[in-house]
Amino acid sequence: MIGLTHYLVLSGLLFAVGLLGVLRRKSLLMLFFATEILLNAANVGFVAISKYYMDLSGQMFALFIIAIAASEVAVGLGLLVLWYKRVGTIDLDSLNIMKG
Fold first, then answer.
1. Tens digits of per-residue pLDDT, 5-34?
2. Can you list the residues of the chain whose pLDDT is less than 50?
3. What is the DSSP letter of 3?
4. Residue 17 sits in a domain of what CATH number?
5. CA distance 77 to 83
């Protein structure tokens, strides 16, 4: 039987993978993917604890996180397309030219 511990371990593993992706951050697209994995790890934890305690507050938090993640991706991808048109790459090292 799958219990709360299994879901929390899965959430921790997903969070570790997302954190590793954020720390490596070679391109902006991979940075967006890594933050999505971090947010989904939090969602798994919130929903699992919410189910365990029979309380809907964790599921409501997860719903808000999904909405925030969707808006973050929409704005981020718009900026990414503009940056790619201007510079021709999505490498994070190219952001150094933005220094004033």
1. 999 999 999 999 999 999 987 788 888 899
2. none
3. -
4. 1.10.287.3510
5. 10
